[in-house]
Amino acid sequence: MDFKTTVFFFLSAILIFAGLRVITARNPVHAVLHLILAFFTSAGLWLLLQAEFLAMVLVMVYIGAVMVLFLFVVMMLDINLDQLRQGFWKYLPLGAVIGILIAIEMGMVLGSRYFQVLDSEVPGVAANASNTRELGALLSTDYVYPFELAAVVLLVAIVAAVALTFRGPKKTRYTDPAAQIRVKAADRVRVVKMPVEKQD
Amino acid sequence: MDTLMQFGTGVFGTAWPAVWTLIKIVLIVAPLMLGVAYLTYAERKVIGYMQVRIGPNRVGPLGLLQPIADGVKLLLKEIVVPSGANRFLFVIAPMLSLAPALAAWAVVPFTDTLVLADIDASLLYILAIGSMGVYGVVLAGWASNSKYAFLGAMRAAAQIVSYEIAMGFALVVVLMVSGSLNLVDIVQSQQKGTFADMGLNFLSWNWLPLLPLFVVYFISGVAETNRAPFDVAEGESEIVAGFHVDYSGMAFAVFFLAEYAEMILIATLTSLLFLGGWSSPVAFLPDGIVWLLAKICFMLLFFLWFRATFPRYRYDHIMRLGWKVFIPLTVVWLFVVGIWMMSPLNIWK
User: Fold this and answer.
1) CATH number assigned to the domain comprising residue A33
2) Is residue B175 within 8 Å of B232, Cβ to Cβ?
3) CA nearest A132 in B: which residue?
4) Which residues contact B213 (CB under 8 A, 6 or more apart)?
5) Could you identify which of A34, A120, B178, B261 might form a hypothetical disulfide with A21, taking C-beta atoms 3.0 to 4.6 angstroms apart as the criterion?
6) What is the pLDDT of residues B209-243, one digit of tens each?
7) Does the bond joining A177 to the residue before it have cis omega, within 30 degrees of 0?
8) Is residue A92 one of the residues assigned to a domain?
9) Residue A23's domain spans which residues?
10) pTM listed for this prediction
């Protein structure tokens, strides 16, 4: 077993363990932390496939931004585990069917002839070519329309999120920081000149 | 050097490359930790002089042994774990905040050749590792099971996530004008230009054409490290000391180490990206690591200077500055530089 395979199995073992802990951990914060570990190890696996750009972006976007907000929300929730566990046996058959379906689909995709990632040589990449440059060139030539389409979809999602959470102008009193910053001393303090008055 | 390599191969056999890398890591981390120790000393001295005081002067000549005394004192203290705390996360949180601050140094170049890992996407690596620093703070606040610590952690997390965006945009412009994600290439791309041909290298560095981004990047860096005037995460007057209020002894010291190591990292990155790294400011002096160290010290002085000068920002003002001033500014400058590069006036060919 060469070094690369050892690293692969090491990372995969951690990834599977972390993935299992995400759904079995009792404490939701622990579950999120294991999800972070799972993302981190899968970034390591991508590095093994020489997809350095994707690996870095995975860490940056998912661990650095998405999971922070996730952790934030989970920490503030007061989750009652007993309530969550109610009806577990009732929903188990349906959940199991969906789970098995997803597993079969994944097996079919991964087993197909076009998806032998580990065996395939990435086409047209020279040994010293920059991953980022190749990806950028592809995205702005061959895949420019799908890329722009994805950007539009994301924009729609942003607008939709704002529209969903916007509840009209605030009725409460609030401070306007911009106005506060614009204030000058002359607006607040008036210096009055007057002669000294003698006390008699 | 060759004899050292041969000797190493003789002693360790095939394990020598791994051992040699470990030696190099120690050679980076040990001076860094020493730098952190003396940065605390420098901070107290500089702020002392700015406030017409003397600063520490009791331990050793000129108080030079003060950081060592502080370190020993913290080492000897008991680490108290609050009874309601999540023990595992409470202990691991300081490590999580120190580890990214140290891991980022793996790709930081000190000269053209003196770099631990000269990888293609080093700037991306720094961004990715840097974005993980927030977990130490968030977990420390949550694991302490205290309201003050939790409030501090929330403030810190929101602040770090916000300022990371402005920092990221500033870096995008830098890599646009350098055409590379590699830090060595970024520094080398600053060594040429009209002014460099005239012998005035310091006018060819990125700080001049990208001045607004230089300012935004450095101020965001100050906010990232939760330093004054953006230190509401610690806010002594309202939440005692924020996320590390329940930490004592060495666990507390590790947070301190992380904060100062991150300060040095931000100063180093600013020097590399905007101040030409190890290149000398004028053509008749040779390039070298001395220049990089001088620039780092110069940027670090700003951190201390800010702390002595500005009162603490109010929380909503910090958020406003990040989202409504810095992010639009960097986006606009991104377009300006993009159009500039496409126009005949392009200076980055």
Assistant:
1) 1.20.120.1200
2) no
3) B121
4) B170, B173, B174, B274, B330, B333
5) A34
6) 888 899 999 999 898 888 878 887 776 667 677 77
7) no
8) no
9) 1-79
10) 0.85
